[in-house]
Amino acid sequence: MPPHPLHLLGFEPIVSPRQPGSLARLGFEPAIQAASEPLIAHPQPVGAMDPRSGRRIVQPTDNPAVNQALATDAMPFYKTRLLAAIRDIPGATLAASRDAKNPIRLAEKITAEGQPAETVSDYGAAQIAVDSPQAKDAVVAAVKRHFPVLREQDHFALGDPKYRYRSYSLQLQMPNGASQELQIVPRPVLQANRQEHHDYKKARNAELAGRSDNPAKAAAIAINDAAMDRFNSRNGARVVKGAVTKGSLVRLADGAVARVVYVDPNMRIARVRTEDGRNITVRHKDLRGRVDR
Fold first, then answer.
1. Residue 264: CB partners within 8 Å, gap ≥ 6?
2. Is 243 exposed, middle or buried (0-12, 13-18, 19+ CB in 10 A)?
3. Which of 200, 214, 258, 282 is the most exposed place for a label (fewest CB within 10 A)?
4. What pLDDT is stored for residue 221 in this prediction?
5. Looking at residues 167-175, what average pLDDT do you find?
6. Which helix (H) or strand (E) holds 292?
7. Do the Cβ atoms of 74 and 54 come closer than 8 Å?
8. What's residue 269's pLDDT?
């Protein structure tokens, strides 16, 4: 019997009693096969920047079918180690996991959105829901003790720039060469995700078609902001009216939270620093209020 093509690339399966021989069962959907130019996989320098797209390479080959096989094979190991990492953290639960990406969406990312197969992060993915900022910090620290981290991105407090979806994302290396995505999400945001995802998909599809769908985007933002407000409220963070002083946490007009570093009472302006490191000058009237924790 000829050797399996993954073995020729130097990748080995993670032995799992629940998935015996899983590496040999490729069973890919036609859409994934079509998204791959040749069916030959070429090893990629994980961690480097792809010069064509400017995106970071996080998967070991340029073939989406091979990357999917590796991610699917690694999922039992991934879930088991995630559960071990968060076992003793109050207010943190493994809320969802997916061992294979929707093949249509995968092909769309590669062909329509210009994401080379080796830069796609979520062939396999998991979400951890947390009830407090302290639980989030504990999960991040625990995960880093259990996995090598290829990259991380903190949109937990402020949300992503487009839809203000809150998450702390890490890309985690698996022993078989694949990497998996992890999102640490405020529980109310995750609970609202099904409702928000409908508007997100409408806005994303309109964008891919070259159309603007501002109502759908605005609806997704509003859902995410409202969910994060519930999370903050449950954790003792509330917006109050009153004087803005140096050191205050404030809510900006776009919903972001920032800390005041300078106040000019005569000009009625303040300079604030957002949680992602931006320095912005705003007028007092554009502040929704102080955030008390």
1. 270
2. exposed
3. 214
4. 85
5. 96
6. strand 287-292
7. no
8. 77
